[in-house]
Amino acid sequence: MKIKKCLNYLLDNVFYREKKNGYIHNRTTKLDLNEKISKTKTMFGLNMMKTWKLLPSTVPYLINRPSSSTAVATVKMEKPPSSNSKPRRRSSYGTSRKSILKKTFKQEQVTFTAPFSDEPHVAIIGGGISGLICAIFLDKRGIRSTVFDTGLHGLGGRLGTRIIDDEYDSLVFDHAAQFFTVNDSRFAEIVNVWLDKGLVREWKGTVGELKNGGEFLPFLPSPPRYIATRGMRFLADSLLSQTSLVNVERPCWISKLEPFNGMWHLSENGKPRGKFDAIVIAHNGKCANRLLMTSGLPLIAKQMKRLELSSIWALLAAFEETLPFLENTEVAFEGAFVRGIDSVSWMANNTKKLLASQSDGPHCWTFLSTAAYGKQNKVPQENIPTATATRVKEGMLEGVETALGLSKGSLPKPFYTKLQLWGAALPTNTPGVPCIFDPFGRAGICGDWLLGSNIEAAVLSGIALANHIADYIQSLGTDPGEFAVGLNHEFQPLEGHDIGQFPGLGSEEKITEAQVYELAK
């Protein structure tokens, strides 16, 4: 009882208010506490300490937003960012959705009141096409940024290309994004620049629909289809070449976000990675959810958790000769959307697509599974069991054989194969908003899933968030409420093919006879 009385006296009488470093503090010589005394009493009752001496090391650091606002805006920080903290070991199978949701919704909102730095610096976590475009357009607005990406071989995310040059001759595979179309005028302007620089070109090869049994219907040549000249990763790695205010940290896995002294402090497994005026989350899936669940950004975390993603298997296979077709199939296609096969939704000949001048040599094919097959055979993508890999590989090759109308066992055996699971492949729902931005927490999200599931959507999202952040910084943050975007948008189902949306081509269900034609006999 004596200890309790002492604690109550301390809470009710000793503290005075002091404004410092852009935050409003309740201050003593040893402790920083929230002004809401009743809440603090509850949080730090006697059951949380055994002796009075433990009190200073037990009380956390609390940040308030100004009292003039009615929204909840406090966030707990047990201590300033430290390089000595050891990361908590996680299960190899990740954190359950229920666990993440529980932690996410318990968060309290962080609010920054400090002015921006004289030279604002933005952290972009994720080096896919959306994050890279965001960095480019921040650069255009005179704002520095650092892109953090986990890629070992290069930037790009789903702009992935695998090149094998060891004992084989130039095996090249686009193993995620296959091609793109253009529908928006803003994206068209960007693609024209890429064309002029030789980063992309029009894909003139035959692309169409392959039905179970070998029936192939080519698409009309319009709208144009575009590919990167040397593989999709080449496009991603080339985008930042003309920027002057963009730094890249790769490979780097940002594991923690901490607001402190008016800035966001980023760290990688306890190692400081810099402090920033604002942050951009340009990736998704379980890693993004883990990062956000204790960051002090509950509104952004809530929207990220609403995102639903498909899983897709990618099988890369190299054959000595081109694949056989039925005798009555007159077209050796370069790419095909596959229908009626459980295990395969897309197949493309990378050799013909990317190395058109190569008349002989191996033929490198990319086979992508259906979303249903990916879900049925989903495992931790970082540690795929051998039995699962064997089953999936055999199932997909059998699917290719059936799609081509070949007899069982007649598909040539590939001399090289590589299997990869895209555990967070493509979005299946969307809020239909170009970007998400929390002005109080100075944090935003960009990505294709906010508008669709293709490269165009990713680019438009990156542009939108970059300009929004630049406008907010230019406003000096005087009226942050006006800059809130997408924090409460409801999600809707997203239509499209299993490997994404292609404006102008239509979805798998909407391909009609007007979009395909029979070759002249």
From TrEMBL:
UniProt-listed Gene3D superfamilies: 3.90.660.10, FAD/NAD(P)-binding domain (3.50.50.60)
Record GO cellular component, one term: chloroplast
Stretch list, region Disordered: 72-97
Lineage: superkingdom: Eukaryota
InterPro entries: FAD/NAD-bd_sf
Pfam name, any one: NAD_binding_8
Protein name as annotated: Putative FAD/NAD(P)-binding domain-containing protein
